[in-house]
Design a protein that fits this description.
By secondary structure, the chain is an all-beta fold. Helix content is about 0%, strand content about 55%. It contains no helices and eleven strands. The strands form two sheets. Strands 2, 4, 5, 6, 9, 10 and 11 form a seven-stranded mixed beta sheet that branches. Strands 1-3-8-7 form a four-stranded antiparallel beta sheet, with no helix packed on it. About 35% of the residues are buried.
């Protein structure tokens, strides 16, 4: 059974940094892409960043380019999201997700971790 467990959320002041981690287990993820999404109160869930597990190809939402960096650690089966220069509009619940390479939809989701950026 696939499990994705996020950690690292919290409260930070604007301009600060946080590092989110997603521990993946339950299968081999070499043919998967891993993504981070977020959902703010009253808004739809939106894409933040993605990385292919095998080749490390990344893609980012325009709103986070240059501030966020997604990476993966093979040995720990973990995907990280380094968030710098945080803004109040980055406040949301952040979710880790996994999809098979080439697929459009994400099949597996974590429970989410809250990120709050104060002004």
């Amino acid at each position: 059974q696939v499990q994705l467990v996020e950690s690292g959320g919290g409260l930070v002041q604007a301009g600060g940094s946080l590092r989110l981690s997603c521990a993946a287990s339950g299968r081999t993820f070499s043919r998967f892409a891993m993504g981070w999404f977020r959902q703010a109160p009253g808004k739809e869930r939106e894409f933040v960043a993605t990385i292919t597990w095998s080749s490390g190809i990344t893609n980012y939402a325009d709103s986070v380019k240059g501030r966020f960096t997604i990476s993966r650690e093979y040995a720990k089966n973990t995907v990280n999201l380094q968030m710098n220069s945080l803004k109040p509009e980055d406040t949301a619940v952040y979710y880790c997700a996994a999809r098979q390479s080439g697929a459009r939809d994400y099949d597996y989701w974590g429970q989410g971790t809250q990120v709050t950026v104060s002004s």
